[in-house]
Amino acid sequence: MSSLELIGISKSFGNVKALDDINLTFEEGKIYGLLGRNGAGKTTMLKIIYEMLFPNSGAVHMDGHAIGGNDTALGKMFFIGEKNYFPEEMKVEKAFRLMNDFRKDFDPAYANRLADAFGLNIKKKIKSLSTGYASIFKNILALASNAPFILLDEPVLGLDANHRDMFYKFMIEKYSESPFTAIISTHLIEEVADVVEHVVIIRNGCIIRDEPRESLLDSGYSVSGKADTVRAFVSGREVLGTDALGGFETAYVLGECPKNDLPEGLEISRMDLQRLFIQLTNS
Amino acid sequence: MKLVPTIRYNVQDIITKTIPVYYGVFTLIFLTLFSMSKLTSLYMAGSFSGASFNSTVLIVVIGFVYTRSSFRYLTQMGVSKRTQITGKVISILLISAVAVVMDRLLELFAEFLFKSTEMTYEGSGIAFSLFDAYLSKLGPVAREMTLIGLGYTSRVMLLSATVFIAMLYVRMNTAAKVIVSVGIPVLAFVGMPALAMLIPEQMAKLIHTIAEITGLSNGLPIRSILWMTGGTVIFMMLYSLITRRAPIKD
Predict the structure, then answer these.
(1) Nearest residue of A to residue B68 by CA position?
(2) CA-CA distance, A68 to A62, in Å (whole number)?
């Protein structure tokens, strides 16, 4: 079973510590959500995995071996980021053709099918693509690469709602046919909430959560009602944060959701991923 | 290993597009001059030097233009830095070989074309003037081999140097880029003449020593070939050093 492992990765830019002793394992055949606020270290982490950046300490291992300039290990991954690293004058069709040169598992027929579905003109130069179509172009390369590990940094940047929906559908379809590992870094948490199986939350360069989505969602709940009642109820519990509106309050609590002994007038509900993320990363 | 596609990516566009266009322009210039001298009543006489019509400019442009973009693209394709370095070295050797052959073909074409006109073409201008005495003693095959050797090693060294400098610019921050961009011309056009005025004897000795070591003052092309090979190895090693852990900057 293939795995991608980060061992003691630290990275600083000047005085800023972008990643601090990251230890993390990405297993084969899972869709990961890599979540974090702006500047948390998500892109830095993905770029270090793909050797676009180099850590100050630590190593990335593929199947138990340090990647360290190994073409075979790097070939098991494909990274797409916000920025475009393709020559600006290159046409989309040439990018597909060259991709076939570098990656023998690349499926050009599938890439062309996706280009048709998204309405991407493959005769166009990459530099002339809009932000949305540039994202579509990179997403197509990633999905058609058939790499066991796909690292997607803001894959839906600039995409309209219809194209975002299409992208997720194609990804799930592809994943259902032949599972791969996708690590999706995005700020659109609500949209990926139903797609990801495992969530990694990064804050200020440190991993604060690394667990299956369901178990993460089960780790907290929200309680709403009159402010006094809510405060009395949450007293002694681990409160992540509160929202107040008039005399009413909602408290976000970590811990197992109480099934009994609920005071009258209080409503308990499960937090969604975005709400939980906001509460975990607010401070 | 992605070495073969890496080399193909590095050289394909250059060999199939850039080089044909570059030499196509020169061929057109020569044909135009030839036609004008033959078909019009204008009296046209003159001399061209091989130094003006060869791949020197092309090689500098190739080195500067392609290095950054290929580094970014190959990294995006998941090509390791080690393979990128190996691929670049082999590509430098291949591109230089094509360039030197094209230069020689252009020279032969120009010599043939202008034979019947009042214009003359001095092929391999610099090489001829520096090593004239040595080359004139050689037979045609040895002379041709020496010229090709000189042409090839000079192009390989020039391309290695420009690739290294281009990669240096990829690695440097803005402040360092400004310092180098301003500092080198200042050193060359102000610093060196100033030194020549302040310590003329020492500078003359230094220049003489360099010219002797490189074979330029004593007209020994083999020494120049060896010196340029050594220079190439140094530039390639420096390129390798700065590329091994080069990050992609946004």
Answers:
(1) A87
(2) 10
Query: Do the chains contact at B78 and A99, CB–CB below 8 Å?
Result: no
Domain boundaries, chain B: 3-171+214-243
Burial class (CB in 10 A: 0-12, 13-18, 19+), A49: buried
Q: Which of A158, A165, A188, A192 is nearest to A84 (CA)?
A: A158
> Rounded CA gap, A110 and A180, in Å?
16
ipTM above 0.95, yes or no: no
The domain A3-212 is classified under which CATH number: 3.40.50.150, 3.30.230.80, 3.40.50.300, 3.90.79.10?
Answer: 3.40.50.300
Tell whether B137 is within 8 A of chain A (Cβ). Answer: no
Q: What is the DSSP string of B145-190?
A: HHHHHHHHHHHHHHHHHHHHHHHHHHHS-HHHHHHHHHHHHHIIII
The whole-angstrom separation of Cα B206 and Cα B221 is 20
CA–chain centroid gap for A259, Å, is 32
* Topology classification of domain A218-281: Alpha-Beta Plaits (3.30.70)
> Which residue from B minimizes the CA distance to A150?
B78
Encode chain B (250 residues) as per-residue pLDDT tens digits.
799 999 999 999 899 999 999 999 989 988 888 888 777 766 666 666 555 567 888 999 999 999 999 999 999 999 999 999 999 999 999 999 999 999 888 888 888 888 877 777 666 555 557 788 888 888 889 988 888 898 899 999 999 999 999 999 999 999 999 998 899 889 989 999 999 999 999 999 998 888 888 777 777 888 889 999 999 999 999 999 999 999 998 7
Question: What are the chain B neighbours of A52 within 8 Å (beta carbons)?
Answer: 75, 247-248
Residues of chain A numbered 23-42 and touching chain B (CB < 8 Å)? none
**B77 in contact with A, Cβ within 8 Å:** yes
Quick one: closest CA in B to A77, which residue?
B78
Alpha-carbon Rg for chain A in angstroms: 21
Least Cα separation, residue B144 to chain A (angstroms) = 38
Measured between beta carbons, which residues in chain B are less than 8 angstroms from residue A70?
80
d(CA B200, CA B232): 30
User: From the list A69, A78, A86, which residue is nearest B73 (CB)?
Assistant: A86
Q: Count CB pairs under 8 A between chains A and B.
A: 62
Q: Searching chain B, which residue's CA lies closest to the CA of residue A82?
A: B250
Q: Does the CB of B83 have a partner CB in chain A at under 8 Å? A: yes
C-beta separation of A276 from A193 below 8 A: no
The residues spanned by each domain of chain A are 3-212, 218-281
Cα A196 versus chain centre, distance:
8
